[in-house]
Amino acid sequence: MSIDPRIMKTLLQLQWMPSLDFTGSSSPNILSPGSQEDPSLFGTLLSKMLSGSGSSLQENSGLQALNDELASITTLFKQPLPFYNEPDLSMANPTQTVFDPYINEASAKYGVDPSLVKAVIDTESAFNPNSVSSAGAKGLMQLMDGTARGLGVENSFDPQQNIEGGTRYLAYLLGKYGGSEQAALAAYNAGPGRVDRAGISSNEDFAQKLGALPAETQRYVGKVLAALAQYSPSNF
């Protein structure tokens, strides 16, 4: 009997598949292929092929039925199992956070790009409202106690208060340095006095006098700018 190689390939693939009842369950007991008690799809289909011995497959009246059955089984294995629903991620926005209402409110109030606020929070605390640094900075935007009091923040661990105060401070620094994000971020990390003493008041100054700032501040500004690119609306 001549066997179509394409059919044999499919049968060999089925030989190694667990026997499915097409409801998602599988049987771990797979008998040897072609045995009398073989419950697998391989055994069933192979028996049908062998029952047609003595005539060419092309002349066998059951060939079309076998091919149709193989096609339906192949299609079945391409479909997701009944108990699995693939999630729809088409509308997912990886830049959204549970703090967005507070961020958007504070950003609108003080005229700061919400993406920049998110980038600062990400870099400062990784969105952990209970974060405390070794220097004593607290909350999402890592406010020192003295700075928090000056900004009217009574509880730095309260996300809304912290974001309100941190965004207000960031807006002040942006205004002080003419909208320069690099200078404002450097001042947020090292303090305005350190940035002023370095003679930095613009993005151009920052690029030219970067070495006058602490290495930690240089890394900090780079991290925030990298995060800003991630949270920018143009990237999603």
Q: How do the helices and strands line up, and which of them pair or pack?
A:
Elements lengths: L4 H11 L3 E2 L5 E2 L13 H10 L12 H16 L21 H11 L3 H12 L19 H6 L8 H18 L4 H10 L1 H6 L5 H6 L6 H17 L5
Antiparallel strand pairs: 1-2
Helix pairs in contact: 1-2, 4-7, 5-11, 7-8, 8-11
Oligomer: single chain
Strand order of the largest sheet: 1-2
Please write the CATH class name of the largest domain.
Mainly Alpha
Overall 3D shape: elongated
Percent in strands: under 5%
Cα end-to-end separation: 59 Å
Low-confidence region ranges: 18-39, 87-91
Reported CATH architecture of the largest domain: Orthogonal Bundle
Q: What series of H and E elements makes up the topology?
A: HEEHHHHHHHHHH
| Biggest pleated sheet | 2 strands, antiparallel
CATH topology type of the largest domain: Lysozyme
Number of beta-strand segments = 2
The averaged pLDDT comes out at 78
- Rg, nearest Å: 33 Å
Please give the domain count.
Answer: 2
**Number of DSSP helical runs:** 11
The residue fraction in helices comes out at 40-55%
Family: Belongs to the transglycosylase Slt family.
Organism: Paenibacillus sepulcri
Protein name: Lytic transglycosylase domain-containing protein
Domain Transglycosylase SLT: 102-202
Structure description:
With 236 residues, the chain is an all-alpha fold. It contains eleven helices and two strands. Strands 1-2 form a two-stranded antiparallel ribbon. It is elongated and about 85 Å long.
Keywords:
elongated, 236 residues, 2 domains, Lysozyme
Summarize the structure.
This is Lytic transglycosylase domain-containing protein. Residues 102-202 form the Transglycosylase SLT domain. The protein is mainly α and 236 residues long.
